[in-house]
Design a protein that fits this description.
heterodimer; A: alpha/beta; seven-stranded parallel sheet; five-stranded parallel sheet; 17 helices; 43% helix; B: alpha/beta; six-stranded mixed sheet; disordered N terminus
């Protein structure tokens, strides 16, 4: 498609989106909530079909785990947002004289990653409709069919519940040029950019407000006071979930010398295969894409057995995770980078400080702002650990994949868009949800400052009067 | 100049919806009322076709003073009428602030004359 064609298409679709936004703005909370409920129910009822199709089309992960992702994106997200006030007057404080009104932002472009095509589509659709924002879905090119199906299901449900036409639009074929044409379109209100750093940067550079995400390189520290079998169990559950495709999944385990042997034994009991030095080298050869310097698409979302075979390593048939003991972090140690697959780097430290320093290095090596994980029963150490991590989420004593996403193992907002703050060059560290998609207006009634009223303002013009004097006078108790 | 007024009575699910069509100096003046949802808009657009054919006006005005809600279908009707009668000769008048805001968000005021 030529540049002209892509911008023409963007113009056409944005015109429709604008109209949908206009009609949507007239609906009240009850009407909006009915629409959200209908879309939730339809999405939930199709959770298995969509999960299977996603697995088939992308070739990544496991269908059952994709079902769980769909459940989070519908049932858990719905429960979290269903009672939120997102229309009209949402709060009124008579004493302070402030009334808050929730306004929609306008058309939202939702970019969908290949790792969670159906769950991200469902999630972004629900939070957009809840806030009366029309959504335009931009699927990953390897998941266009299942995103098409998902969007269709949502749209039909939305329409039947009284949502305006074109409240959901979706691309069925896509290209960088087409995505770009939408991103720079003047009528687009917001981009929800879930994807790699290239995409997120393009979104922030487009001139349209953006909520983006960052990459993770999650360290999990099994601290000396941790319940070791429990910790290893949780990590295994997390690392094998959807073959490690959740950005918040653990990338490396850091342990202390005294517990190292026991921990490795626990991993071995659960299908963890510890690689020898030579085997680590073999794995190093295949995990990175030599051209782009990031994880190789050939291993993303594949099983441990598949990866082992590809690397030329013989492993037991019941192997679930490959553990690679490493003694460094950085580009010379490819496995120390984010690799969305059932591979864990394994580091042994002498004591707490050394362990935390390793975690800092891992965190800063491509995972700033995302997530860090710790298993510990020492409250002070947990806090010390958290303080020095550059991570929006520090999950304690839980699987990181499920934990960071929120809702199942903690009370964080369930979300498929995890902000990484300044570390990830994002605008927030929040688990992004419906409240981020509103423009709040405030009516401010007259409540003059009493102290200012009684204060002689001429004193301000006297240069020689400093802070101490003015404050004392300003705060005088009459 | 003679003035004809027609009262178009449309029944919509048992509710009497009023729309008023009048012709003054070759301008077809259409006054709508209430919530202009998809079904209601369908009736209106049929009626407009009839009126246009009958009187072949040079201009058309939509008076939305008594309108409380508009649907996507009604936006489309405005666009169609705008294109048929030729842009200069179509205008939408007497919008309440709520309805005016809807047209603003939709970006309609850039092309169609909206008072």
């Amino acid at each position: 498609m030529s540049n002209e064609e892509t911008s023409h298409k963007a113009d056409e679709w944005m015109t429709k989106a604008k109209r949908a936004a206009a009609i949507f703005s007239q609906l009240d909370q009850k009407q909006v909530d009915n629409i959200v409920k209908a879309v939730y129910e339809a999405g939930f009822d199709h959770r298995v079909e969509l999960a299977k199709q996603a697995h088939e089309e992308t070739g990544l992960g496991k269908w059952k785990d994709k079902v769980i992702k769909n459940v989070i994106a519908t049932q858990f997200v719905y429960e979290d947002i269903k009672d939120l006030k997102t229309v009209g007057i949402i709060s009124e404080d008579r004493r302070d004289g402030i009334v808050e009104i929730a306004q929609p932002m306008g058309p939202i472009l939702a970019v969908i990653p290949v790792t969670n095509p159906t769950s991200t589509t469902l999630f972004k659709t629900l939070i957009s409709l809840k806030t009366r924002n029309p959504i335009i879905i931009c699927p990953h090119m390897r998941a266009t069919k299942v995103c098409d199906k998902t969007a269709q299901i949502c749209y039909e449900a939305a329409l039947s519940a009284g949502a305006p036409e074109d409240c959901i639009q979706w691309l069925t074929t896509t290209s960088h040029e087409q995505t770009h044409a939408f991103m720079i379109h003047p009528d687009l209100a917001l981009i929800l950019a879930t994807g790699g750093s290239g995409l997120v940067k393009a979104a922030y550079s487009s001139g349209t407000p953006t909520i983006g995400v960052g990459a993770g390189n999650v360290p999990v520290y099994i601290e000396s006071s941790a319940d070791i079998p429990f910790a290893v169990e949780q990590i295994c559950m997390s690392k094998t979930f959807d073959n490690g495709t959740v950005c918040a999944s653990e990338q490396a385990v850091v342990v202390e010398q005294a517990q190292a042997e026991q921990i490795l034994a626990e991993f071995s009991k659960r299908g963890g295969y510890v690689l020898s030095h030579e085997e680590v080298e073999k794995l190093n050869n295949i995990v990175m894409d030599p051209e782009r310097g990031i994880m190789s698409p050939a291993v993303v979302g594949q099983s441990a057995l598949f990866i082992a075979e590809k690397a030329g390593i013989t492993v037991p048939e019941d192997t679930q995770i490959l553990l690679a003991p490493l003694d460094g972090i950085g580009d010379e140690y490819p496995i120390s980078s984010e690799i969305l697959a059932p591979i864990l780097g394994f580091y042994v430290a002498e004591h707490f400080d050394e362990a935390v320093n390793l975690c800092i290095d891992l965190n800063f090596h491509g995972g700033m702002g995302h997530t860090a994980s710790i298993f510990s029963n020492d409250e002070a150490k947990i806090k010390d650990f958290a303080m020095v991590m550059n991570a929006g989420r520090i999950v304690v004593n839980m699987p990181s994949s499920h934990g960071a996403v929120g809702g199942i193992f903690n009370t964080l907002h369930p979300s498929l868009t995890l902000g990484c703050g300044a570390g990830g060059k994002n605008i927030t560290t929040d688990n992004v949800t419906a409240k981020h998609l509103l423009n709040i207006q405030r009516i401010a009634r007259r409540r003059p400052s009493r102290r200012l009223e009684k204060f002689n303002m001429n004193l301000y013009f006297n240069e020689s009067l400093k802070v101490d004097f003015i404050e004392k006078e300003f705060n005088r108790n009459y | 100049m003679e003035q004809w007024a027609w009262l178009g009575m449309l029944y919509n699910k048992g509710l009497l919806i009023m729309s008023e069509f009048s012709l003054k100096e070759d301008v077809l003046h259409c006054a709508f009322e209430g919530a202009l949802d998809m079904e209601e808009t369908k009736h209106l657009s049929e009626e407009i076709v009839v009126q246009m054919e009958k009187h072949k006006p040079s201009s058309v005005v939509f008076d939305l003073q008594k309108v409380s809600y508009i649907s996507s279908a009604f936006l489309r009707l405005c666009l169609q009428t705008y294109q048929e009668i030729d842009s200069e000769n179509f205008s939408i008048v007497n919008l309440s602030p709520h309805v005016k805001k809807v047209f603003k968000i939709a970006g309609f005021d850039k092309e169609i004359k909206i008072q």
